[in-house]
Amino acid sequence: MASDLGLAFRFALREMRGGLAGFRVFLLAIALGVAAIAAVGSVSRSMTDGLAAEGRTILGGDVAFSLIQRQATDAERAFLAETGAVSEVAALRAMARRSDGADETLVELKAVDAAYPLTGTLTVESPSGPVPASLEPGAALIAGELAARLRLAAGDAVEVGRARFRVAGVIAREPDELATGLGFGPRLMIRADDLAATGLVEPGSLVRYLYRVRLPGAADDAAVKAVSDAANARFPEAGWQIRGRDDASPGLRRNIDQFAQYLTLVGLSALLVGGVGVANAVGAYLDGKRRVIATLRSLGAPGGFVVRLYLVQIALLAAIGILAGLAVGAAIAFFAADLLAAALSLPASGGAFHPGALGTAAAYGLATALVFALAPLGRARSVPPTALFRGGVDPNRRSAPRRYLVGALGMAAGLAGLAVLLAYDRRIALYFVVAAAGAFLALRLVGLAVTALARRAPRLPSAEWRLAIGNIHRPGALTGSVVLSLGLGLTLLVTIASIDGNLRRQLVEALPEQAPSFFFLDLRRDEMAGFGELVAERAPGARLETVPMLRGRIVALKGEPVDKVEPAAEARWALSGDRGITYSATVPENSRLVEGEWWPADYSGPPLVSFEAEVGRGLGLSIGDTVRVNVLGREVDVRVANFRAVQWESLAINFLMVFSPNTFAGAPHTVLATLAWPTPPPAETEYALMRDLATAYPTVTVVRVREALGRIADILGQLMAAIRAASAIALAASVLVLAGALAAGHSQRLYDAVILKTLGATRARLVGAFALEYALIGLATAIFGVGAGVLAAWGVVSGIMDQPYRVLFGTATLAAVGAVASTVVLGLVGTWRLLGRKAAPVLRDL
Prior knowledge:
Layout: H1 2-16, H2 24-53, H3 55-59, E1 63-68, H4 74-83, E2 85-98, E3 104-112, E4 123-124, E5 131-132, E6 139-142, H5 144-149, E7 157-160, E8 163-173, E9 187-191, H6 195-198, E10 208-214, H7 221-234, E11 241-244, H8 250-288, H9 290-298, H10 303-343, H11 355-381, H12 402-421, H13 426-455, H14 463-473, H15 479-509, E12 518-523, H16 528-538, E13 543-557, E14 560-561, E15 579-583, E16 591-596, E17 608-612, H17 613-618, E18 626-631, E19 634-646, E20 657-659, E21 670-676, H18 683-696, E22 701-704, H19 705-744, H20 746-758, H21 763-800, H22 809-835, H23 839-844
Parallel strand pairs: 3-9, 6-8, 15-20, 17-19
Antiparallel strand pairs: 1-10, 1-11, 2-3, 2-7, 2-10, 4-5, 4-8, 6-9, 7-8, 12-21, 12-22, 13-14, 13-15, 13-18, 13-21, 16-19, 17-20, 18-19
Helix pairs in contact: 1-10, 2-8, 2-10, 2-11, 2-19, 8-11, 8-15, 8-19, 10-11, 11-12, 12-13, 13-14, 13-15, 13-21, 14-21, 15-19, 15-21, 15-22, 19-22, 20-22, 21-22
């Protein structure tokens, strides 16, 4: 066996000296897919490595304790001080105004003590570059975005709440920026001692207090865990959320992992599309080697030797494509990781070598090449010695032996298992595998259906139409390979474009007519009367809705701590931190009961809670189950009374949990309000009201809904741009494979053209016939690709994202026209050259 393999290897190298004609698509398709997967994996690993390496700086210490709406007690502070150096930070949303009242905007306010930052360096911009910053009494540091929005510079005055601050500088780097997550406004930083003067902090105000602890010496992870365990044991009802430096920014890490998975699947899509090109290229190459194979068989070479000979060639070629893809992917990652890290203010090892990510990409590439090459290799084994005496194409083209097809299916299953095993969310990866398998099967059936329809088509009077239809169903026709090549890429393109368009429409264009224009946070109950009167005066006809609001965190479900609960994927977010909660005597608007009963208006029994139905069931809850929540440092056990269906898309006031009124009797809280006009007013009207309310009630935080959604839409646009860039690779692979599939039939097309020209056909008639053939195949594929893409996008938007879906006819039409045009143009580019060949040399070879 070893000697046979060595002989096959020598024969393979000798034969490859003749060049790699016909394998350009093979190499490019493998390289494109591998490069995409390698780049995504390497960038993702660089980012997560950066998070791990700089976890202490990002978190602001070794351990962080977070409390909502209350500061740590003296006993809790004493405990923290015993463990190491402590820094206290207060974070909340507020309104920042120019001192002349000309403009204002929502900001993320951060009040820091003298010890901040415990790790890393806070820097501000200066003519000579970033320099370390310090905050003096009455001073504020602002983000560059805030400076641009309010037209502020160092030395200018800015008002926050009831206090006025002097801008001391523009923040260049905030070491713990990533630990606080996504904000709806730019940063404004002041001293903690100045926070009281703003009047923003009242009982019930939505303030998050962060206590960062830097442990003495070179504390290891065990010491960090010991502090966390001791804090929970000593203060079991504190209600604080504890994070260690190894989990400095869980939201960002989760987003990186999820985003990397989606891009990896897009890259794998490119590889699968390229796999069709592999099959086409290998099939065409081996068809061109039929005489060589027949000669070997005539000299006594067994079929197994033929397979080994060309398997070695394919493996060597795949290795070339894989190495090229790895090199390109690593180069992309080298630059992209540093650019992305700079955008996120995150150190990343962009230049680091990540063998795991590159190895995964190489495994995907090799497995894809072998899966799609086995069937053509099986057919090559069956080439008989008598083929040496025949020219042209084998009239009795055989299918691959069954064991080769079984082997290809086995390797495909292994490839699918690898994709699921390495995925961050295996459920999504499994959906992808099923969808990919379904797409291949469906496209195969589409090819067979087009062939069958062409075979049964009536005889038409036009010779061009008869020739075009005949070419579609003839033996060895291009129909199957073209449908596969074009259909996969087109389906992916329509899916991504439809998802992108629908999400943008939901966020920006499709706001409900009665959607609120503003949310008002931190309204005090004693301010409500005057606030309502001012709104009625300045916005007559607008509707003001108010509800009490607190912040709480679920700490146990059915008596089980949440860190031991494994919720459904769609409900996991409900346990990741604190949530806005309210109480009500009646069923809230935009909600309807789907299970259970609402409590009476005068209910005074044990505390009850109403859950949003989908999330509640995703948490494994049923009517009558108990839930423990921590509110203002007090743990409360409540019983699930009912489930509600909530119209989140209304953008009105909605809550995950609504409690019976007696649950928080006497607890300090603020009021959440919304303002909605019967018809959306001009932006100038909204801004004028915003300025009037900010002036009269400086401690109230105003969130303009369209600005917030615009910010989210911008972030979504950046993410979708990256996905579109990755999908462009899959589309490029699809075009390459389509070109290769069309080129693979050139030898047969040459014989057809020569014979038809000999019989009197003109070049124009032949071009017309071939154009019709390509257009018909392209149209059939376009119909399937657009339909499948729309269906897949509907499944993602409606099924996974639970959002209304609308077919984007413009996108679908453009994709269909592009598919038909691509098929015709690429087909005719090669055909035109063939039609110029002389007939005599070809006829002599028949």
